[in-house]
């Protein structure tokens, strides 16, 4: 039988960026907050020997253990889903700081078009621009309304950057200057400008210089070591929740962190949540933690799963189109090009996760879509993230996959290639969704989350268009051989693609088509706030973290209002 603990004001389920922001903001204002994290504690000192590609980038030291918790996957509703036995297409984090520990640090703002995508698309191109099976909808908030929260998050994490010439209006400059200009970023910018495009330095949470944020937390300057993605930063220079919002929460004296605490159920009386039930994963003991407010601040998949297992909100049904929990699952597409250079060599092994340059000319509605068979687009970037030797062995496509010629070309092109990559937007589709698997269960006896997902015609058309644009830039950069990446016919759960999963508990202005309002407060449980990329009605052509952070500050404001007045906030 679960041991019942004394009631607190707030419980957060997961302690990464969103859980840390909620905790810091509410604890600073005197609320008692408990943070439940199913993984272990981590701090900068744990990463002093972090430069081990095999341990972290291949064996996934910082990621979820799929032998205890995974998802099942299928491409279509008429197929049987099978468990993902090892991490592949995306990497779900585990432990204090979550994905905010092992991210690259690229920190964009979504475009004004994103937040009013249905209204703007129909106004400009008519209602028939995208088919009825694409469930695009406005977010219930505008860019201008969210801008102060973008600004708040950027100041908390000290973003180094310069504004996009084609992005939304800003109230302030970035807190710190852009990262270093390199031979590679300079060439990309020069080539882009010759093509009439508008390049700018990528906004980065790998800081260009030391910075103290408004809460007094110190973030150090990047060393350009190249070990960002899938690694923690031993310098405290890649901004993470562990060096910012979590210490801020702890300093208040109003925050209690409990690691190794896996929440299996939100306790719900049909109108409100009364608390959570969780398991101490080290001892097997079960606890009930009562609370006035619950914030789901874990990863996209887990936010949706917990609501489904706790029976909060109506599950989405792709046949009838009714229900909201599990709806509008979106991913991303990754078009791009590879350039091989016969004579020039590049130092691609130094770098940082967000050292790069970007163009937005093919993103959002920054170009006319009248004559193309898709909406939205993608950011096109070159990044100097710091290549690592085990997983980088590029050769031109006509090269044998083994033998003398393969070895010779592997050596020749080892530092004679560059990649231009794009993050393509993902539009929600009627048959792409999440629900509970009827067969498979996790280590705690709960159903696994089932993912039904495949690429759509929208994805494939967008992929081809943006891929060709990236190749034009690569050719202008002087590559001797340019290879345009081709789209896969069907989505596969392997190999790794991107950890930019979104949707499942989406925001909006209508309870019939959304799960949460623009404070991320649930329509069906007024004291439950679901914070994270699970709230995105679609995915944009950028990394999601900047928008996740902005929405988290908005949600924290909403939770504080709710603590004083109760009821629906909109």
Automatic annotation (TrEMBL):
Residues 143-330 form the Glucose-methanol-choline oxidoreductase N-terminal domain. It comes from the Bacteria. Residues 428-552 form the Glucose-methanol-choline oxidoreductase C-terminal domain. InterPro entries: FAD/NAD-bd_sf (IPR036188), GMC_OxRdtase_N (IPR000172), GMC_OxRtase_C (IPR007867). GO terms for molecular function: flavin adenine dinucleotide binding; oxidoreductase activity, acting on CH-OH group of donors. The keyword Oxidoreductase applies. Keywords: FAD, Flavoprotein, Oxidoreductase. Belongs to the GMC oxidoreductase family. This is GMC family oxidoreductase.
């Amino acid at each position: 039988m679960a041991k019942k603990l004394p009631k607190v004001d707030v419980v957060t389920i997961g302690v990464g960026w969103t859980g840390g922001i909620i905790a810091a903001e509410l604890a600073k204002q005197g609320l008692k907050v408990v943070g439940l994290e199913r993984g272990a504690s981590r701090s900068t000192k744990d990463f002093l020997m972090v430069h081990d590609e095999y341990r972290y980038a291949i064996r996934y030291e910082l990621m979820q253990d799929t032998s205890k918790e995974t998802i099942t996957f299928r491409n279509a509703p008429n197929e049987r889903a099978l468990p993902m036995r090892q991490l592949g297409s995306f990497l779900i984090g585990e432990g204090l700081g979550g994905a905010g520990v092992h991210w690259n640090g690229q920190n964009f703002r979504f475009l004004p078009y994103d937040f009013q995508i249905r209204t703007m698309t129909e106004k400009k191109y008519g209602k028939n621009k995208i088919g009825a099976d694409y469930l695009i909808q406005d977010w219930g908030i505008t860019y201008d309304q969210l801008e102060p929260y973008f600004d708040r998050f950027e100041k908390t994490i000290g973003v180094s950057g310069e504004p996009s010439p084609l992005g939304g209006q800003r109230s302030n400059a970035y807190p710190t200057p852009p990262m270093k200009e390199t031979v590679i970023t300079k060439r990309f910018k020069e080539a882009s400008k010759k093509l009439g495009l508008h390049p700018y330095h990528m906004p980065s949470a790998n800081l260009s210089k030391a910075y103290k944020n408004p809460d007094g937390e110190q973030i150090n300057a990047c060393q350009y070591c190249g070990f960002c993605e899938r690694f923690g930063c031993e310098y405290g220079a890649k901004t993470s929740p562990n060096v910012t919002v979590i210490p801020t929460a702890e300093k208040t004296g109003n925050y209690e962190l409990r690691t190794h605490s896996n929440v299996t159920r939100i306790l719900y009386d049909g109108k409100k949540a009364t608390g959570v039930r969780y398991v101490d994963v080290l001892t097997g003991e079960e606890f009930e933690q009562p609370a006035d407010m619950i914030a789901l601040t874990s990863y996209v998949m887990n936010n949706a799963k917990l609501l489904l297992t706790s029976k909060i909100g109506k599950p989405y049904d792709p046949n009838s189109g009714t229900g909201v929990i599990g709806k509008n699952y979106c991913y991303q597409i990754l078009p791009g090009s590879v350039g091989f250079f016969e004579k020039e060599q590049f130092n691609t092994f130094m770098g940082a996760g967000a050292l790069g340059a970007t163009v937005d000319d093919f993103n959002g509605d920054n170009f006319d879509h009248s004559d193309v068979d898709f909406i939205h687009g993608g950011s096109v970037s070159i990044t100097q993230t710091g290549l690592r030797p085990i997983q980088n062995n590029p050769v031109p496509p006509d090269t044998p996959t083994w033998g003398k010629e393969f070895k010779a070309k592997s050596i020749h092109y080892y530092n004679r290639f560059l990649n231009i990559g794009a993050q393509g937007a993902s539009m929600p589709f009627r048959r792409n969704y999440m629900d509970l698997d009827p067969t498979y269960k996790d280590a705690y006896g709960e159903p696994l989350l089932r993912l039904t997902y495949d690429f759509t015609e929208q994805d494939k058309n967008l992929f081809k268009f943006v891929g060709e644009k990236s190749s034009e830039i690569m050719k202008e950069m002087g590559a001797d051989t340019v290879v345009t990446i081709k789209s896969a016919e069907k989505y596969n759960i392997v190999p790794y693609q991107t950890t930019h999963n979104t949707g499942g508990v989406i925001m909006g202005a209508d309870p019939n088509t959304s799960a949460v309002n623009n404070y991320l407060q649930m329509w069906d449980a007024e004291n439950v706030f679901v914070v994270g990329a699970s709230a995105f009605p679609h995915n944009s052509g950028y990394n999601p973290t900047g928008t996740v952070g902005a929405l988290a500050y908005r949600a924290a404001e909403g939770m504080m209002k709710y603590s004083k007045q109760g009821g629906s906030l909109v």
